[in-house]
Specification:
One of its GO terms (molecular function) is aspartic-type endopeptidase activity. The protein is α+β, with helices and mostly antiparallel strands and 158 residues long. It is 63% helix and 14% strand.
């Protein structure tokens, strides 16, 4: 239940942020929040991360739906036996995938708005942040599991 609530909360935050941008800004409009470092810039992304596959919404949608279904099946099968960090990771990834898929279904594009000009030229949204947090948690879980396994092997060899 906790993971379902987290998923719903993250999707809601993503969608509310996008509704606010679409309702208050025009495409291409940018508002500086922190000098020339951080802006809110309304971009219509018809591709995937980093602007790849622009205009390939059918392919992107099929892959995304497959990923969403795969993650739901994985979580359903492993929720009770999976560890907490892994469950949170997949909850974040699922939330981001669903958030961006909702955009593709209802808008025909993904609304991006976070613009860190001081770091790179890509504009992204909260759903993208959720996916990256999820991936980072999976990497962290993998590193921790490897360390735990190494420690266990060390203790057995003593």
């Amino acid at each position: 239940m906790l993971y379902l609530l987290l998923i719903l909360l993250l999707i809601a935050l993503d969608q509310i942020s996008k509704i606010m941008i679409v309702g208050r800004m025009v495409e291409g409009e940018s508002i500086a929040l922190l000098y020339d470092f951080l802006h809110i810039t309304y971009v219509k992304n018809r591709g995937v991360a980093f602007g790849m596959l622009q205009g390939k919404i059918n392919i992107i949608s099929l892959v995304t739906v497959a990923a969403i279904i795969g993650i739901i099946i994985y979580l359903a099968k492993n929720l009770k036996k999976g560890n907490t960090l892994e469950n949170f990771a997949y909850s974040f990834i699922l939330s981001g995938a669903i958030g961006n898929m909702l955009d593709r279904i209802f808008r025909g594009f993904v609304v991006d708005m976070v613009d860190f000009r001081g770091i790179w030229s890509f504009v992204f949204n909260l759903a993208d942040v959720w996916i990256n947090i999820g991936v980072a948690l999976i990497v962290l879980e993998s590193v921790l599991a490897t360390k735990k396994k190494e420690k266990s092997i060390e203790e057995e060899s003593k």
